[in-house]
Amino acid sequence: MKISFSPEDEAFREQAARWLAENLTGEFEKLRFRGGPGDEHSFIDERRAWEKRLAAGGWVGVGWATEDGGRGATISRQVIFAEEYARAGGPGRLGHIGEGLAGPTIAAFGTPDQKARYLPPILRGEALWCQGYSEPAAGSDLAAVATRARLGDDGRWRISGQKVWTSLAHLADWCFVLARTDPASSGHLGLGFFLVAMAQPGVTVRPIEQITGSSEFNEVFFDEAVAADLLGAPGDGWKIAMALLGFERGVSTLGQQMQFRGELDEIIRVAKDNGAAQDPDIRARIAEAQMGLTVMRYNALRMLGGDAEETRAALVYKLHWASWHRNLGKLAMDVLGEAAELCDTAPYGLTRLQSLFLFTRADTLYGGSNQIQRNLIAERGLGMPREAKGR
């Protein structure tokens, strides 16, 4: 586990921090600390422009291999940029699914032609992606996907089915879709990994309004929508989908923790201002939150080490941060006291901490519920028998 950085790494940190300080000004000043959970609907046009500013500065694809157009930065420097971005108040990334998930997956499994076609628009901050995994009957059990892919007489695959909880689908240009290429298959067999343009007949997006008042998530309906490409071969879908989820546990977790740090700092500021910090119970809970965040950081650094023991340690990460963040939301409301019951502006203008509380209700459900995470720890990490399935 690496908990310190070399002088060269620290020079890179200074470079990143300086660029962010110089560029999060003017038209982008108002984007600081905006566009995160519960605030995803804010400043969409400005955040699109910010994606292109990042790209022009060479800060998109920092960890991508140089042959794929990235900087080829080490893990240490990827961690540094994620941390400095969050520390500077960099806005919620509209391009994070393309940069962090679609891009690395295409780089790993795509043909030279596919990489030449799809990677440059991501690196330029132009193409936005969304993820077509979850379905009404296939959430935590991803292998139950029912969306179908049919190979037409013209040699093109056509996608039919429904995806749900699709982040940023209403803004995305592209969607990577897990669909069943073999109608007689079940489970993880007979699946394909497709790249589908969103702006075409046969694709319908319906926003899902959350209790925060925003609509980051969507339902997506495919009705004979044409897939632009198949990544890998028919039947490779599960292998590619699992590899993509591995990319999701990358250095962005450190940036996520910097966001958590900012939320905790805001709670502490409010507690000092309104006197809640004088309550021994509140003080103890703030201390517990601080310790939990420290443990989270060291566990994330262990995950990035990559050996078998650290890979098993990665299984606890989602369970830990989701439960910790949910409790932070509760702490925020208790610190606010009576003010937590009042909207900042009419008709439903939530403060940052109110949005935090409401959004964290979902943390222990999406991306694998706490129950599913505990099963993964037991079965994959500890080698315990699989949970018996009810009839």
Automatic annotation (TrEMBL):
- Which residue range or ranges hold the Acyl-CoA dehydrogenase/oxidase C-terminal domain? 235-381
One Pfam family linked to the record? Acyl-CoA_dh_N
Q: Which InterPro entries match?
A: Acyl-CoA_Oxase/DH_mid-dom, Acyl-CoA_Oxase/DH_mid-dom_sf, AcylCo_DH-like_C, AcylCo_DH/oxidase_C, AcylCoA_DH/ox_N, AcylCoA_DH/ox_N_sf, AcylCoA_DH/oxidase_NM_dom_sf, Mycobact_Acyl-CoA_DH
The Acyl-CoA dehydrogenase/oxidase N-terminal domain covers 6-126
Q: Does the keyword Magnesium apply?
A: no
Needed co-factor(s): FAD
One annotated GO molecular function is:
oxidoreductase activity, acting on the CH-CH group of donors
Superkingdom of origin = Bacteria
Query: Can you tell me which family this protein belongs to?
Result: Belongs to the acyl-CoA dehydrogenase family.
Give the protein's recorded name.
Answer: Acyl-CoA dehydrogenase
Species of origin reads Crenobacter intestini
